[in-house]
Amino acid sequence: QEHTFKLHHLLSEKAPAHTQMLAPWAEKVAANSGGKVKIDIYPAMSLGGKPPELIQQARDGVVDIIWTVNGYTPGLFPRTEVFELPTVYTNDTVATNLAMRDMFESDLKQEYNGVEVMFLHVHAGQGIHMVDKATRKPEDFAGLKMRIPTRTGAWIIEALGASPVGMPVPALPQALAKKVVDGAFIPWEIIPPLKIQEQTKYQIEGADKVRFGTTTFQVSMNADRWNSLPEDVQKAFRDASDEAWVAQVGDIWRASDEFGIGLAVKAGNEHITLTQEETDAMNTALTPVVDRWVDEVSAKGIDGAALVDAARAAIAKHQQ
Amino acid sequence: MDALLIGFAGLFVLIGLIAIRMPIALSMILVGGIGVTILNGPAIFFSQLKTLAYGQFSIYDLSVVPMFVLMGNIASKAGLSRDLFRAANAWLGWAPGGVAMSAIAACAGFGSVCGSSLATASTMGQVALPELRRLNYSGALSTGTLAAGGVLGILIPPSIVLVIYAVIVEANIVTMFMAAMIPGLIAVVLFLITILIYVMINPESGPAGERPDRAEFISATVNLIPVLTIFGLVIGGIYFGYFNPTPAAAIGVFLVWIYGMARGFVKIPELRDALLETARTTGMIYLILLGAEMLKIFMSRGGVPQAMAEWMANSGLTPMTIMIILLVALIVLGCLMDSLSMILLAIPFFWPVLVEINGGDYVDAANAGFGMTTEDLKIWFGILALIVVELGLITPPVGMNVFVISAMAKDVPMIETFKGVMPFFMAEIVRVILLIAFPALTLWLPAYLSGG
Amino acid sequence: MGPVARFIQGWALAGGVVLLLVVLMNAYSVIGSMFGAPFAGDFEMTQMGVAIAAFAFLPYCQISGSHVTADIFTSNASPVWIARFELLASIVAFAFACLLIWRMYAGMLNQKEYDYTTTILLVPHWWAFIPILMSLALWICASLITLRDAATRTLGR
Ligand code: NA
Ligand code: NA
């Protein structure tokens, strides 16, 4: 092998993100390069530091490639954040991944200084997990305490009249069990590792799997490393991260989400799908979140309204 | 292969540096930093240093450490130790060996608000040692009891070493605290039995104390209410999930502080002393943490933990043999370093070995090497490791608890103190055997409490 | 105790006060959440406050000799040899503190340049680096003090 890369990420080597996404992608790159490239994956922050440091590690060349959650460093990727908003991201992982790819060169690339993005993706979206209350309408959330999923997720909770509570993900099962929080906004995919089905009765989502915001992720390489690579090697990376791949990533995350909710249902939980009317009422209540985001990014000189429209249009284009 | 060799060489250099009195944290920093530089050049190490220390020092789960340290330090000033000993004495003091038993009970009580062994030994030593000597308890029994009793500071939750363990292996701190409870109580019972047997064999070493009058009995018992309330709120709150460990520790500091102020025991000078003591302990712990992270980076890049895990898994030894080898290795390392450094240094190597021989992260209990899920193994091994690393505090050549108590009891030669802790050491070995033979002693309570 | 050492002790106490503030904030948040109004930023403020406090403790640990060492192999060494070992340890501490202040200064510029903030309250992380860099500067001073002490003792005072 002529080129060896260290890929660093935060989850365990048994996590679906590692086994089903990162490892197959690394193999794809290696195969495309005709064996010139080898990517060693270091899971669970084994090369040191805490998850929010990953992006800086890629920029500094401490590691070559990272997979990270954009939201760990709030404010760094304000434009990409548009895809995390409720009513912008609704239910389609594949279309959203493709939309991010479409808008990357024109709208997003500028905020990824010092790294070369391989691909961006989302998870299947924040579903609602409730301990003992089947919340179907925005009013049902009044006075409840809900765990914050992301920065804009906190706004969702406020928009619904509930109190946002910050806590690390591993503390969530305990907090749900003792009703320190009444519920949480997180994707179904978190159900199996945290055994959320044991602490909750209800998993709630909108009609047609509509969710309430999502989280964006990136796989990125140190920019200097990228620029130093010969064209054929760059092509091996590009080909491994093409449209078909990001669509496949969308399917992978959808599948692990389905697995999670299947587990909860099998454990006897009630999986509630809101009616179209109820879903619309929730989305109406969440419109202020989008407005708040537009206002906030405007202060940074970003045309948020245009980004929202462009993102919605790009997602819609791929949904057909 | 080359990288692996450099990694192992690094471990030898580390031991050499520690042996010539280089602070353990700095030894790790030096070996980690130079090691990464040799393997991958200086740029990586320099870049990583930009945020590594800030990242480590701001780990949320670790924030309970300075808080529990502070709580213990304020509690020492607030007179909680005196209240505990007085009450225990009212209940047990009249029996043969009873004052020593009271000291153990009071150590256990103090351990329930203090996360460290040394703090428990020194605080309870100040209170109980004069009383034991006044009643003509033998030097060996009185100092041995207190040195051993100090260990309860860490065996009864909250426990700083357990927090660090939980952070390294990504276990739930609350679960670890729950798991430590029954083993901690077993330690108390075994220590009490040890004293009973000791005074049966040597009646003159532990004469009976005075029987308290009714008024003293009631007043001493009533005095316990504040300690019990604070313990109930903090640990009860954590166990029953009403708060996370950090807010619980904060509430604990707050209550102990208010209580100390209300009694007039904690004024500005006492608070100042407690803060400076906390600064010394916290700074020491956090620097070791940074050193351990730097060492981990070097070792991961060299492939050492992976190689060790693979080698142990393919060694053909039974899982139980490997477990015992690892525990013995911890006892031996205990001659060289303190419990915290040991946990930070050894667990990142030992834990992957155990995961590997158990059959991976998500193995079924039925197919696992240890006959339990890896989550359960994490809890069980954590408690066993906690006990054996704490044994180092009471064994020669470096037994920190023994040193602390010896320094207080000027008239008792240190060798007497080491003789005095021997029976307790045997009791600890009995306990380790019990916990290995019956994992349920460790695993039942967390399962029960999180299920209910 | 010289004026520098006294300042270092005062700095550690200031770190202790930050820790007490974190304690009070957490206590307030628990009480607040009982009445339905938890303080959403408690998590990140705890992280930042404890980090600032922990750095503030490092110089005091250096002058008070709080960093644990293993004394088993050197317990019979002569005082001059012990002083030599301590001199070496002070040199390492000095070198590391210098390296760290240089690198964390670069880290601060990075944090500022890329606008790293906390999640909920959007507090810039580089703010925390200011007291931290001050702590590291004091750690350099502290290691010079212990270095001088050890050097004096190697000369058989
Ligand atoms: Na304790
Ligand atoms: Na020892």
TrEMBL record, chain B:
Membrane topology label: Multi-pass membrane protein
Places the protein is found: Cell inner membrane
InterPro entries: DctM (IPR010656), TRAP_DctM (IPR004681)
Assigned keywords, A-Z: Cell inner membrane, Cell membrane, Membrane, Transmembrane, Transmembrane helix, Transport
Source organism superkingdom: Bacteria
Transmembrane portions of the chain: 29-47, 59-79, 99-119, 140-168, 174-201, 222-242, 248-266, 278-299, 311-333, 340-359, 379-408, 429-449
Record domain TRAP C4-dicarboxylate transport system permease DctM subunit: where: 12-441
Chief subcellular location: membrane
Database matches in Pfam families: DctM
Family named by the database record: Belongs to the TRAP transporter large permease family.
Assembly description: The complex comprises the extracytoplasmic solute receptor protein and the two transmembrane proteins.
Protein name, UniProt field: TRAP transporter large permease protein
Species of the source: Paramylibacter ulvae
Lineage: Bacteria, Pseudomonadati, Pseudomonadota, Alphaproteobacteria, Rhodobacterales
